Amino acid sequence: MRYSNISIGIVSIVFSSNIFALQTENSTILNVDKTPSTELGTIYVHPEYLEIEHLRNTKEIIVISKEQIQEKGHRTISDILAEVPSVSVGATGHGQIDIRGQGADQASRNIQVIVDGVPITALTNHPNQLNYDVIPVEQIERIEIIPGGGSVLYGSGASGGIVNITSSVKSIDNPVYSLSGESNSKGYRLNVNLGTRLNDNLAATFNASKLNRDLHFVDTFRHSEYYSGGLSWDINDTQNLTVRASHLSEDSLYLENISYDKVKKYGTNYRPKIKNGKRAYLYGDRRQDHISVTYRYNTVNNISVISDAFYQKGFYVGVKELDKTVYTNAFGIRNKVKWHYMNGGELLIGIDGTVQKSQLEYYSYKKPKIFNYDKRVFAGYIANQLKWGNWETSQGIRRELTKWGFEKARYQYSIKENQIFNDTKNLWNTAFDLSLAYHYSDSGRVYARYERGYTVPDGIQVTDIVSSMNKDKKKIYHYRGTKAEPEKFNMYEIGLKDSFKFTTVNLVGWYSQTNNQMSRLIYRGNYETINALKTKRWGMDLSMIQQFGNLTLEESYSYLKGRTDYASDEIRKYIASKRYKGKTSNFLRSGLQKVPRHKVALRATYDFTDNLSASVRYTYQSKYENTMYQEDQEGKGNDQVKSFEIVDLSMKYQPRDWIQVYGGITNVFDKKYFNYSSGTGFSPTIVPGAERGYFLGLKAVF
Fold first, then answer.
1. Residue burial 539-572, b: 16+ Cβ < 10 Å; e: rest
2. What is the pLDDT of residue 190?
3. Which of 12, 131, 216, 417 gives a 20 to 30 Å CA spacing to 673?
4. What family does the entry list (predicted)?
């Protein structure tokens, strides 16, 4: 079996060797394709990446297939991820993805989102937020979610988890012609794919997608166009070169959040007041161009080599003023060598190098503002696997250098002068992991895993604003590189995966701890990043699938809880010394901020015939705390986002092998609920959940 393409390869550092055939592997995972069989336990997943394959036996990996994405009427990546029990979308803010309860202020940093091997996580979410809906769902081949881990292979930010998105451009080796369209309550989607094999060694594909979608409130919308193409050349029996390119163009207008009172009074007809000649909407305009190259060298021996490189550039807005536009560009290269040795031994060696830059310059009250960042990451890692009998163990270590550079401007009112500050920060980090698995049957295994990970400061945290007196005894504020250390995480996981005659089971228990969580201390105009907090998180994930004749049942449940406190008495005293009247806060003991404790997903699918099926899905999400501190909760209302239950219906009809019609209803009972709430008291700001919606789509493959 040859590899699917991995994105990144313009300048290749090729390790001369050979590639092995990846073996298909049993996996009990949420929502995967079921190979026709009398036993549902026969579930096969073909790995797209060496990293994913390395983790598969000793880590929870959730796979969502292309077929499931299409059948459920999902319109964005956020829609897809919202169905996964261990993932929360929007609970910590507009467009944010939270895995395993990172909560407010942490979710955007403790996660990596990767599209075709390229990281798209923003350098900072201030002042502009970046959502992750960067590729149309029609062009997604597969999404792999790695909850809570993968630091050796992916580096900083993996403590929350990895969202690995594979686009249809990666299936160039099997090109097809397809056309699809969908009409729904909020707009429409169109997609066309043109794929062909030019000769025995050369294949090409081109995709185009268009999305027009109205959002919750009147006059809010999201309109996007996405184009991608690729060329795959089999140079000979042992070498392949793949080139891919894409362009995203998006215009959108939305409300980040509004008060509960206004939603209650106006509903979806609410419009912001006119101020300075315009209404206070947020702009979500975005452009992104991407190109990547992958070189693969395949021989008959026991070594694989893959060299990838990428380059991308673009901009995004995400604020109220169009002149506050963040311009970004990034490039990088990754090289991987995998060696099969002895009986079942595997050694994976990787070298990564990426550069990300962002630039934001604008005027505020006629004063210039500059937020420019330069982040360079250089890393090497070694990951080893050993198998003997029914036992399997893996070990890995990663060494990484992060070089942060920044340029920021601040107007000094005391001397009526604008000053520009530049500084750099070099951060060395080490991650390692150790796991052990026991295969007690052909389909069942138990495993235990320990991982030491880290998260470096983001663009805001890496800079402190501190004051000093100049020679004229006037207070001056200046930027400097923070003295805070990267967060260190200890993560533990135990799991069981098995499949029986009519059911599959995936059960995972986990625990995560950090004793030096970064926090922003604000006092008398100073902004200082300090390692102020310690946080514990723990939980469990359960997913099962049963098949009874034409009826398939799927159940998923996620439980998580956590606790935050000051890292030490010394830290509490230091914070008290900086604050007014020496006050510090007492943390709630009931859970983490903006982290639902329970999430349940149930689905029943019935095949009426070989061509007609219907599904009903039930989703429950529990309430969450809206604040971290006891004093913010006591005696006030609306401090929790209430629990909610949603029911969705869908149907699929395939009269011919080449054509499919699907449709459904989302939020069948039109339940009113909130995805997000900010602030305390009787009138917090909120983001309403989606109302009842309808969709009808058609797809043809030629």
1. bebbbbbbbeeeebbbbbbbbbebebebbeeebe
2. 94
3. 131
4. Belongs to the TonB-dependent receptor family.
